[in-house]
Amino acid sequence: MMIKEIIFYILALVITVFSIMAVSSRRLIRSATYLLFVLLATAGLYLLLDYHYLFAVQIAVYAGGIMVLFIFAILLTQKPGKNITPEPLFQRVMAILLSGTGLIFCGVIIYKNVSKVYHYVESAEIPVKEIGTTLMGTGKYEYILPFEAISIMLLACIVGAIMIARKR
Amino acid sequence: MGAIFDNFGSGVIPLEGYIFVSLIMFFAGIYGFLSRKSLLMILISIEMILNSADINFAAFNRYLYPDQMEGFFFALFTIAISACETAVAIAIVINIYRNLNNVEVDSLHELQEPEPSETKVDL
């Protein structure tokens, strides 16, 4: 189907452009907005991979929860309408050199090697019932232990965040 | 070699497509992490790095092992962990702002306790 490929290239373009704009924008609130576009386009990629549950989690947790946290933090700590002072040129040039070197290195490796190791599959959505039994099962390849660890970690995170941020 | 160009327009999306997208996102995050001085910008960069890792997990799982769900659950748990990390980090950022009135990395050393020898002089 041609339409899937067109959608993929649109999403790839959106992610590329907005991720670079997000890290180079002068205003924090704009950076957060560009990050929101990147996260939504990533959710679109999950939809193309037929991981519908991951798509919903990405929208709810990242685009819903984390972005609200970011915007609140920016509004609490930043004077409105004020650009942040630009970093020294040397630091930016070094960062561009380092990340550009890594990008070219990994890009060449991927371009030359990855297509040897996979084949195309007919994709189908994973049923949510299977996800649920795998998440709550105790057998091999089932995930009750990380699930419980995550629940304890979320509790610790709530307690820790309140302890750190409260007024004394 | 270069399945992304061989398959252009044929309707299938090669695995390289997803990996290249996440590669660009990852190194944009690295650039932001190294070059920006605001703590919130560093956090935004970390979110992008984690998100690009998630794309890789999901894409590798779908293309290489479509009958299993390891990459899917890794991505799921990574999203939960990054939510925790962001909440705690933003609490720390707000606490720093309350003490220093800015969130620049350069001024963080002002949060240190004074040296023990100096406090002895004060006594």
Structure report:
Helix content of chain A is 75%, strand content 0%. Chain A is built from six helices and no strands. Chain A has helices at 2-24, 28-48, 52-77, 89-113, 128-136, 144-165. Chain B is mainly α and 123 residues long. Chain B is 72% helix and 0% strand. Chain B has helices at residues 3-6, 15-35, 39-64, 70-100, 116-122. The mean pLDDT of chain B is 84. Chains A and B meet through α1, α2, α3, α4 and α5 of A and α2, α3 and α4 of B.
CATH class of the largest domain in chain A: Mainly Alpha
| Tally of structural domains of chain A | 3
Strand content of chain A: under 5%
How many separate structural domains of chain B?
A: 1
Strand/helix succession of chain B: HHHHH
Q: What global shape of chain A is seen?
A: globular
State the separation between the terminal residues of chain B, measured CA to CA: 72 Å
CATH architecture group name of chain B: Orthogonal Bundle
Major interchain interface with per-chain residue totals:
A-B, 85 and 73 residues
Count of β-strands of chain A? 0
Shape of chain B: elongated
Radius of gyration of chain B: 21 Å
Put simply, the count of helices of chain A is 6
- Gyration radius over CA of chain A: 21 Å
Q: What kind of oligomer do you see?
A: heterodimer
List strands and helices in order, with pairings:
The complex is a heterodimer of chains A (168) and B (123).
Chain A: H1 2-24, H2 28-48, H3 52-77, H4 89-113, H5 128-136, H6 144-165
Helix pairs in contact in A: 1-2, 2-3
Chain B: H1 3-6, H2 15-35, H3 39-64, H4 70-100, H5 116-122
Keywords:
heterodimer; A: 168 residues; mainly alpha; 3 domains; 6 helices; 0% strand; B: 123 residues; Helix Hairpins; 5 helices; 72% helix; elongated
Describe the structure concisely for a colleague.
The complex is a heterodimer of chains A (168) and B (123). With 168 residues, chain A is mainly α.
